[in-house]
């Protein structure tokens, strides 16, 4: 269902967002300023991005979070 304010599709429930990523679905929540927490139940892994300032981007589009997420999963692909 689209967000009533922005019209953007935001898959969420009970405060959590369910985001497809590759073959898995990440569960978590994006905060104001680019902060993000994600759980990968398949890998039994949690990762968090916290910053000391506001970052550009909305939800999962903050570049610093995307670089962290992609780097973490690149490590799994190298194993």
TrEMBL record:
Pfam families: Beta-lactamase. Residues 9-63 form the Beta-lactamase-related domain. This is Beta-lactamase domain-containing protein.
């Amino acid at each position: 269902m689209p967000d009533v304010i922005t019209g953007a599709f935001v898959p969420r429930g009970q405060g959590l967002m369910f985001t497809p990523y590759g073959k898995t679905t990440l569960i978590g929540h994006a905060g104001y300023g680019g902060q993000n927490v994600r759980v990968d139940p398949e890998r039994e892994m949690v990762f968090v991005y916290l910053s000391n300032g506001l970052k550009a981007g909305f939800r999962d589009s903050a570049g610093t979070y995307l670089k962290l997420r992609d780097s973490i999963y690149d490590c799994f692909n190298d194993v």
